[in-house]
């Protein structure tokens, strides 16, 4: 299980090489200035806000060769997103859409110790390919007569369309260290949009995590000499 402030994930290995997982993601961004800082709400404002949620599910295949771990994640899901962009006073564009997602992520990692049950020092790399389909798009504009609204290139990419596809490639790396019961990791990734600068997105991610083995399903067997 993996819990964070805006997403949750749970998975289970059904065999020694296959696991199933599901994830949930939610976001609610308050109005903020596109150029940075808090929303201005004035004659010169250029602010946006958005909220979204998504649920995905998938499977992975993993295997170990010597000290190398090979894994491939595959999955799909869907959700909804709403977006609002305000420019000056009473000039607002609103976009709403359903979103479908398909992804695949191959990865490779190297373990520096032979016995990962006792101590772990692991370095890995991955490359994630993601396809988003925004469908059933609904758009609207509220314009003040004294200040005509000008669509930005980000807004225009989705405006007056029923469907829009977006593709990303996201390379990254992960370092993990710890023992059998507690492990720490640092993960970084760098999404790249195949649509160039027509869409606004976060270009870098950094995650710090701690993994705790709770032994929830552990079972101890007692031999005759233990009684």
Per-chain topology:
Blueprint: E1 2-3, E2 7-13, E3 18-33, E4 46-65, E5 68-87, E6 92-111, E7 119-142, H1 153-156, E8 163-179, E9 182-189, E10 192-193, E11 205-212
Antiparallel strand pairs: 1-2, 2-3, 3-4, 4-5, 5-6, 6-7, 7-8, 8-9, 8-10, 9-11
The number of distinct structural domains comes to 1
Overall geometry: elongated
Label the structural class. mainly beta
Our count of helices gives 1
Strand % is over 45%
The averaged pLDDT comes out at: 84
Q: Approximately how much helix is present in the residues? A: under 10%
How would you spell out the order of helices and strands?
Answer: EEEEEEEHEEEE
Q: Low-confidence spans: pLDDT under 50, at least 5 residues?
A: 222-227
Number of strands: 11
| Biggest sheet record | 11 strands, antiparallel
Backbone CA Rg:
23 Å
Please give the alpha-carbon distance between the first and last residues.
35 Å
Pick out its properties.
227 residues, 1 helix, 11 strands
Characterize the structure shown.
The chain has one domain. It has 227 residues and is mainly β. The chain has one helix at 153-156, and strands at 2-3, 7-13, 18-33, 46-65, 68-87, 92-111, 119-142, 163-179, 182-189, 192-193, 205-212. Strand 8 and strand 9 form a beta hairpin. It is elongated and about 65 Å long. Strands 1, 2, 3, 4, 5, 6, 7, 8, 9, 10 and 11 form an eleven-stranded antiparallel sheet that branches.
């Amino acid at each position: 299980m993996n819990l964070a402030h805006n997403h949750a994930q749970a998975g289970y290995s059904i065999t020694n090489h296959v696991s199933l997982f599901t994830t949930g993601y939610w976001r609610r961004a308050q109005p903020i200035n596109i150029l940075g800082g808090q929303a201005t709400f004035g004659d010169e404002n250029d602010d946006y806000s958005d909220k979204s949620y998504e649920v995905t599910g998938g499977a992975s295949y993993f295997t170990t060769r010597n000290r190398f771990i090979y894994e491939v994640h595959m999955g799909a899901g869907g959700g909804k997103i709403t977006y609002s962009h305000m420019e000056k006073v009473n000039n607002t564009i609103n976009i709403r859409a359903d979103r479908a997602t398909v992804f695949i992520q191959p990865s490779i990692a190297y373990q520096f110790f032979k016995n990962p049950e006792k101590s772990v020092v692991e370095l890995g790399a991955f490359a994630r390919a993601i396809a988003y389909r925004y469908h059933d798009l609904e758009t609207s504009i509220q314009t003040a007569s004294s200040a005509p609204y000008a669509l930005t290139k980000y807004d225009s990419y989705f405006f007056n369309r029923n469907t829009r596809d977006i593709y990303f490639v996201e390379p990254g790396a992960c370092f993990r260290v710890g023992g059998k019961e507690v492990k720490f990791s640092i993960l970084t990734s760098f999404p790249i949009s195949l649509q160039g600068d027509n869409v606004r997105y976060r270009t870098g991610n950094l995650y710090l995590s701690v993994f705790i083995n709770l032994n929830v399903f552990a079972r101890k067997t007692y031999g005759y000499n233990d009684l």
